[in-house]
Write a structure and sequence with these properties.
By secondary structure, the protein is an alpha+beta fold. The chain contains one helix and six strands; from the N terminus they run βββββαβ.
């Protein structure tokens, strides 16, 4: 059973997913409200909470379906900001 905390699952985690190429911010809704940030190196960084591993795999399937290269997936600590300027 999953414990609930502030309306979110206690099992949820924040992730930073770096994609090769630019992705327009209008795609945020398709990625369940994750934040899309263009990075200085020409990549796009998706940042946000993911409920569980199944949801993470769902996000990664969407990345695959867009045909953009997946550069990195990083689990962020609870207070760790995303680093979109690499």
């Amino acid at each position: 059973m999953t414990r609930q905390t502030n309306g979110r699952s206690a099992d949820s985690s924040r992730y930073e997913i770096r994609l090769g190429g630019r992705l327009d911010p209008r795609w945020a809704d398709w990625f369940d409200g994750m934040t899309l940030t263009p990075a200085d190196d020409g990549s796009t960084v998706l940042t946000g909470a993911v409920l569980d591993q199944a949801a993470l795999h769902g996000v990664l399937r969407k990345v695959r379906d867009l045909g953009l290269p997946l550069l990195a997936v990083t689990q962020l600590g609870p207070d760790q900001p995303h680093n979109s300027t690499r």
